[in-house]
Specification:
Layout: H1 3-6, H2 11-24, H3 31-41, H4 48-59, H5 68-93, E1 97-98, E2 101-102, H6 104-108, H7 110-129, H8 134-156, H9 165-190, H10 195-222, H11 225-228, H12 234-237, H13 243-251, H14 255-263, H15 268-279, H16 283-300, H17 309-323
Antiparallel strand pairs: 1-2
Helix pairs in contact: 2-5, 4-5, 4-9, 4-17, 5-7, 5-8, 5-9, 8-9, 9-10, 10-16, 13-16, 16-17
Amino acid sequence: MQLKEIYQPIENELNDVARFLEEFLGKSDNELILKINKFLLKTPGKRIRPALLLLSAKATSNHDTSSNKKLAKIASAIEMIHIASLVHDDVIDHAKIRHNKPSINHKWGQDISIALGDYLYSKAFELISSLGNIDILYCISQATSKMCEGELAQVCSRDNVSLMKKQYISIIEKKTASLFAASCKAGAIVSDCQEIIQNTLMEYGLNLGIVFQIIDDCIDLIGESTHLGKPPGADFKIGEFTLPILNLLSQTEDKDELMYLIGQQNDQNAFIEIKQRFINSSAIVKTKEDIHDYIQKSKRSLVNLEESIFKQSMFSLVDLVAERATF
């Protein structure tokens, strides 16, 4: 199943989000800000986080249209938070390419990129605050705080040879999965469903976000530029120990040689050697098992939801994310 088919039940609402983003980010007296915002919106990406909010709300409500405007605003704010995090990520990682196009920092420089990320965060919380719902504001602000903490922890853990799997999972839970989880919970808050359902939807989003990031980290190691939308090996070049590398370290018999290769961050041949070692080792099997475990956790969280086309889309979204693990 393709993403378009999965999003079909919320197609109109996602279109509302796209229109709202264009309108909301199209308000500025500064021509350069308008130009940058327009550039950002040219490559919308998968819009997974707004989709999770919409699907969660629709799966737990009577599906009326009275809250659609509110949902569009929250979904737009969540997407702005995500975009802001990517802009800052590219500065931190010195990335030049994003979605097969120049990154903001490569096109306009780091100073503008840092200020732009701050601007997008502030616009997102301005929008959320305008709704007057303290529960939604707390849910999303808490997730944003975790995202920033996860990013900081990841940077602090670069070149840390003693990083353990548990620490890695904690980092990606905060950096990536927290916004997935908050998107689901915020949707459930809008539909005013029971807290137990809100929490199970959070678990669904959290585990889906973990799967998404582990697969991303694997693709960065063994994928191709056409698949990634940017050159592979970004994590290797900045000394980040991701799950495939941690599993490889735990499985290899010659840790010293592998650590030497990991230390050669500017050597493309060293990266290729590590890539081949991972592909030809039991570490790739272990990583697939880890991915499978989180996929099952995510799906189990949906068991108690009433049957609907929205619930089915949420199941299908897990499967689609899992399909990226074709390695």
